[in-house]
Amino acid sequence: MKRFTIISIATIYILSEVISLRAQEDYRFEIGGGVGMTGYLGDANTSNLYQHPSWDVELLFRYIATNRWNFKTNFYIGGLKGNSADMTNVFPDGQTYKFSTVFYELSELAEFNFFGYGIGETYLHLKRWTPYLAGGLGITAWNVGGKAGAAFTIPFGVGFRYKPSKRWNLGLEFLMKKVFTDKLDGPDLQDPVGIKSSFMKNTDWYSTLTFTVSYEFSKRCATCNYKD
Q: Which residue in 4, 25, 44, 69 could disulfide with 82, CB within 3.0 to 4.6 Å?
């Protein structure tokens, strides 16, 4: 009986230490960056999102709330361009328009993982990979033809994340951004066919398709065996 008691106490102690070590490896935050491509839809391109693709660079900061929910801050610098000469639609007097700009975007997104994402804590059935949904609110600034502009955006889309090791993450994310203005492609394309736009009705969208690498830091709980 004494031997059984000693073995039981030792087993409980070892298990508590293992759980504690796992908790010590659970992190709150993630920082990283990425590169990718952009697409544009608007008065200078009404059908093919990637008719004139451009580039983007992203910096990200993510708060890991749970294995399913994250909250991410994105900062993008990227290019957008379009040319109405490639469209089948014809503007009045046969005019054609093209534009090119560099944009700056700051956005906040909520992300929902389809699977519990992580390594360790097998009782939670975590996976090293997961698709996810994302959506939020942002603001974008740009300059076309010497005319600066800024507007609110609604970014939403899907992504995929993979964890090659405990603290490193690889990701691929596609987001569409609804821009609440018709001036993203410049003043010449604000009202090319005489149809007035408004805050809630316009034709300008853009997208980002970005590959990211990120690193987790700040242990969630270094001395206990639960998540706060």
A: 44
Measured CA to CA, the distance from residue 146 to residue 105 in angstroms comes to 19
Contacts of 22 (CB under 8 A, 6+ apart): 120, 121, 225
Q: What proportion of the chain, given as a percentage, has pLDDT over 70?
A: 73
3-state SS string over the chain? Answer: CHHHHHHHHHHHHHHHHHHHHHHHCCEEEEEEEEEEEEEEEECCECCCCCCCCEEEEEEEEEEECCCCEEEEEEEEEEEEEEEHHHCCCCCHHHCCCEEEEEEEEEEEEEEEECCCECCCCHHHCCECEEEEEEEEEEEEEEEECCEEEEEEEEEEEEEEEECCCCCEEEEEEEEEEEECCCCCCCHHHCCCCCCCCCCCCCCCEEEEEEEEEEEEEEECCCCCCCCC
Structure tokens of 63?
Answer: 């708060």
**Contact status, residue 140 vs residue 151, Cβ threshold 8 Å:** yes
Q: For the whole model, what pTM was predicted?
A: 0.80
Number of neighbours of residue 23 by Cβ within 10 angstroms: 19
Q: Give the residue-averaged pLDDT of 65-88.
A: 89
pLDDT confidence of residue 202: 64
Residues in the chain: 228
| Distance (Å, whole) CA 132 – CA 41 | 24
Cα(129)–Cα(25) distance, integer angstroms: 18
Query: Which two structure tokens, joined as six digits, stand for 84?
Result: 């109405």
Considering the chain, what percentage of its residues have pLDDT values greater than 90? Answer: 57
